[in-house]
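Run: sequence + zinc ion -> complex structure.
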Amino acid sequence: MEIRVLAGDVTQTRAGAIMVGIFEGTEALADHLTAVDKALEGAISRLVEQGEVKGKLGEITLVHSLGRLPSDRVVVAGLGKKQELTKDRLRGVVAEVCRSLQKKSVETMATGLLGAGIAGIAPEGAAQAITEGALLGTYSFRKHITKEAEHGDLKQLLIVTADEADRPILEPGCHRGRVIAEAVNFARDMVNEPANYMAPGDMAEAAKKLAEGYGLGLTVLEKDRMQELGMGALLGVSQGSCQPPRFIVLDYKGGDSGVVDLALVGKGITFDSGGISIKPSEKMEEMKTDMAGGAAVMAAMAAIAQLKPRINVTALVPAVENLPSGSALRPGDIVTAMTGKTIEIISTDAEGRLILADALGYAVKLGARFIVDVATLTGAIRIALGAVCSGAFGNNQGLVDKVLAAGAEAGEPIWQMPMYDDYKEQNKSDVADIKNVGGRLAGAITAAQFLAEFVGDTPWLHLDIAGTSTTDKERHHLVKGATGVAVATLVNLALSISAESTR
Ligand code: BES
Ligand code: MN
Ligand code: ZN
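>> structure
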């Protein structure tokens, strides 16, 4: 999609549709609405009077201009209460409008700079939110559908500003929005692929494309190197599958020091059958998305490489398939992680924490200042938080606060979960240093406590995205399937750590 900022009068723009916003409970129509209303001979004010247009958040009314305006259609979009407008709401409304126009094969939409200057939204932020809404809301994954789509794509978005002087302010906002949204859509593409198209080797191939495209450093460790490093937990999970594991390392160097400021670790289970502790077959197909954390950190690196924060960031993705076979890990087995800790396997379905144990061990060995891992780790976080927010667990409140702020800025809600020492009791093993399941109670927390054992004193945060990485319905900027959650949060985090260290 082409997105352009133009100076001019949006009502005079020639497009398939122009979008105008209306607030809930507004008596007089805002200026730009008055102009459109006049051209349409009072059609909008009549709809308001009759109560069909209320301005409620997400309300979409399509009016045909029948030649009275250069554009064929006017979309009147409800923005909710004026004082409650946020960038997230704006992005969501733009997404829904773009999606509905795309379903009608409209190719061009023009909009004014909706929301700017309202409720503290800066013009640059409004431009970013509009851009993200358009790119994220119209996403679809049709790669494996041979039948042609029933409608075309929305091809062009024009953001029309009254003042030419606004353009240099809005264009960076559009740029940032595009970089982030394209990264989110890249992650969605990876996650939506079935496991026969997204095996560990395919994840490494995707990393290679990113490295070449954006100038990132790339190292891919294979099985023999993992053995040398003593990654017994990761290798244990991988031993049931014919797909060889990969350990992907992507490096971005934006700082002048030799240290890794931020290590991003993503769970890359390309298919989670549960292994010998096999899952029920119902909905097992959804477990092709168990590499969403890995996809998120890889995609974030692509955006980071383009937005250039002045820090060094390294992404680590253990990519492994979890299958049962004659060579698979068994419940009761004991494996030794890279840090030397021994782990009793209670369930081979608690495999995410095993591969992460070795990836976190690797991050610590790199000497990373901060470590953030992202993983579809537990069904328990879905029970606790549903599909609305991701769960955050940390050993350092300063880092937790940074990630919560980055998530809020990104419009990705994150809820901090407790990490009381008492929960650690549940992970105690009689035969090894620790066991990989701490029982049914507080399952998301005991999983996080397990991970905490492999990071030592390094400030670390674990984001459990098992509830938020996919969605079963269209909602705001989200469409069915993978959401690409955490990409935007990680990008904002890198930018904020950079802003802090250069201050
Ligand atoms: N990949 C799953 C978690 C998951 C569940 C992600 C549903 C997305 C949707 C993870 O590997 C898993 O199987 N966790 C188990 C852990 C249990 C065996 C301790 C779970 O949550 O049931
Ligand atoms: Mn599992
Ligand atoms: Zn899993």
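>> summary
The chain has a mean pLDDT of 97. The chain has two domains: 2-180, 194-393+417-468.
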